[in-house]
Amino acid sequence: MKIYKFGGASVKSADGVRNLANIVADTPEELFVVVSAMGKTTNALEKILDLFYDGMSAEAEAALDELVEYHFTITSDLWGWHYMPARAARFFDELREIVRESDPSLRSYEVWYDRVVSVGELVSTAIVSAYLEYDGLPNKWVDMRELFVTSHRHRDANIDMERSAERLCSLVARSEKRLFVGQGFIGATPEGVTTTIGREGSDYSAAVAGALLEAESVSIWKDVDGILNGDPKIFENTTLIPELSYMDAVELAHSGAQIIHPKTIKPLQNKSIPLHVKCFLDKTKPGSVIRDGVEVSPDIPIFILKRRQALLKVIPQDFSFMLEEKILNIFTHLSAYPIKINLIQSSAISLNLCIDDHDRYTDEIVATLREEGFDVSCEKGLEFLTVRGYDSETAHYYGNADGVILMQRSAKNLRIVKKVI
Ligand code: ASP
Ligand code: MG
Predict the structure, then answer these.
(1) Which atom of ligand 1 is nearest to the CA of 40?
(2) Residue 404 belongs to what domain range?
(3) What digits encode the pLDDT tens for the residues 137-151?
């Protein structure tokens, strides 16, 4: 069994879906294909959700019309006439009913989020599966909400590996098909309530499916040649890294390298399953592989930049020391939010935290910590730069650069919080 994961960019157009079909047709092994929502659909669904949640259901429906139209452009091109596979149409209809008739106050924002935003993946897989069938590739569409059992933490749910393994393995064993198409990013609680596992989480879905099915490999198909030593949209002169250890990969992903979701590596490392990052624009290119047995780190520095950062400076109002108890209190409160803490630095009476700035949560976190008896200042609009495997030249350059607010150095990593210059 092999696992392929196709992200939103790879299925954003009819050509993308045809290309996916070609790649699948070229794979003789039993195959589980994990697909994200098409193009920028998840963002569009987030907007629809916000309109609905703010009581603007007519506007939400208009935005939904636009999204349906976008999908129609793709399907009509694929089939050559105005057509939408019935299953995809049903998911859109259900969503329309929600925005038209449901009362947003009935459930929490997070629960609605998962219900609404998951439609992107349900629709994309319904289309991909139907198109593969049409193209002569018999396959089984699977609803990952019936296979991945998750925690109740909406928008950031954890997959229960044991319970999911049973369901996934028995489905594959029972099926006569050798090709499966399922959604990334989604699952359901044991009671069957839809959950999502965090933005860009489809890589993780693919990795979990790979680990549970003990796949021979997992491949993530992207619009870049493989893993580069920097995002080519941000950094110049980037170089391909052909091989990487799980350890280096996890550090890169955790620092914010967009190439793979941070949670992706662990399940694969645990079962020694190689992870390929391949280019869907040219399947003959070798790409990169993360696997067991890679002993040395790349001999070039790797640059990772995270934008939209906020730096919180937390000081006890009574000027007491920042000791374990205080730190525990702060982190207990932070753990209630689905946000990521990118850098932690403490001194006698203060704790600095660089976090992903979030429209809804950053101000709420600041308010909560103030209620807990801390003085909190918050600087927004910052960037967080990690240089893994830095050399003295890079360290010198960044150490003296304008706008640096905070810097941490370990043997391998240089980590900097800075203003946007
Ligand atoms: N569609 C989701 C997102 O855009 C999940 C994913 O693409 O991995 O965040
Ligand atoms: Mg995506």
Answers:
(1) 4
(2) 302-419
(3) 999 999 999 999 999
